[in-house]
Amino acid sequence: MRVLVVTPEPRGADLEPESPAQCLRDLGCELLLEGLDLEGLDEESVLRKPPTLVVVDTGERLESAYAVISRVKRVEGLSDVPVLLCVPVSRLAALDFSQGFDDFVLRPVVATELYARVRQLDFRFGEYSGEETLKAGDLTIDLAGYEARFRGRRLDFTHQEFELLKFLAQNRGKVFTREQLLRRVWGYEYYGGSRTVDIHVRRIRSKLGEGEDLIQTVRNVGYKMRSATEDVSEQEEEEPGEEA
C-alpha cells in the first residue's frame, strides 16, 4: 500500500518510533512523506502512482490539519483518496467531523489500532471481486444472498435491476451500449427496446441515492460503472421511455 503521510517531521529526519509514519513503514507500507505546506508535492508523480491512503499528522494543530485536508482534496488524483487524521487525546473534544477526513486514530499511535483503521478504510473505499461478494467503493453486492447494500443500507432491487447492477459492477470501468446490455443481461431471447435499459438505469440510480453517480452515462455510447480512479463526470439526462 502506498501512503501519503503529511507530517511536521522534516524529510530525511529519523521518524519517531511511535509516529504514524514509522508504524506504517513497519507495516510494510510505501511512504510518501510531505511537510504541512505540501510545497514538495509532485502532482504529476501522484497521478502516475496515486496513494491509496492519506494520513494527516499535525499534532495539536487541528486547524493546520484541516487546511492540509482541504489542500489535499483539491489535488487531482487525491480528491477521492480516504484521509485518516491522527489526533492527540487532548484535542479529541475539539474535533470537527465536517472537515473532510474519513476516520481518525489517536496519538500516540498504537500499531494494532492503526492497522485496523487502515484495513477498515481500505475495505470501505477499495474494490474487490470474489465468488460471493463484489465491492465497488461504498457499494457491496452479496451474490450468494442476492442483495446489495450502499454504506450499509440495504437496497431493494427487482431481479432485473439487480442483474444489471451486478453486471456493471463485474465489469467496472467498461462501457457497454444499450444493445450490448440487452444481450448480456436480458439475454438473446429478449426483444424489448433499448429504452428498457434507460428505465432500469434510472431506477437503480434512484435507489442508490447518494451513490447514483456510480453508474455513468457515456454520451452517445451507453453506460458504465465508474471505476475507483475516475472523477465523477456530468451525466447525460435521459427522457423516460416505455418498457417494451
How would you sum up this structure, described in words?
It is a single chain. The protein has 244 residues and is α/β, with parallel strands linked by helices. It folds into two domains: 2-125, 3-Layer(aba) Sandwich (Rossmann fold); 128-225, Arc Repressor Mutant, subunit A. It is built from seven helices and 13 strands. It has helices at residues 20-26, 43-48, 62-73, 111-125, 159-170, 178-186, 195-208, and strands at residues 2-6, 30-34, 53-57, 83-88, 103-107, 127-129, 133-136, 139-142, 147-150, 153-155, 176-177, 215-218, 222-225. The strands form three sheets. The chain has a five-stranded parallel β-sheet with strand order 2-1-3-4-5, sandwiched between helices. A five-stranded antiparallel β-sheet has the order 6-7-8-9-10, sandwiched between helices. Helix 5 packs across helix 6 (178-186) and helix 5 packs across helix 7. The termini are far apart.
Quick recap of the structure?
The chain is built from seven helices and 13 strands. It has 244 residues and is α/β, with parallel strands linked by helices. Helix 5 packs across helix 6 and helix 5 crosses helix 7.
Labels describing this entry:
disordered C terminus; 7 helices; 2 domains; 5-stranded parallel beta sheet; Arc Repressor Mutant, subunit A; 31% helix; alpha/beta; 244 residues; Rossmann fold
Q: Low-confidence spans: pLDDT under 50, at least 5 residues? A: 231-244
What CATH first level of the largest domain would be assigned? Alpha Beta
How many β-strands, per DSSP?
13
Mean pLDDT: 82
Terminal-residue CA separation: 48 Å
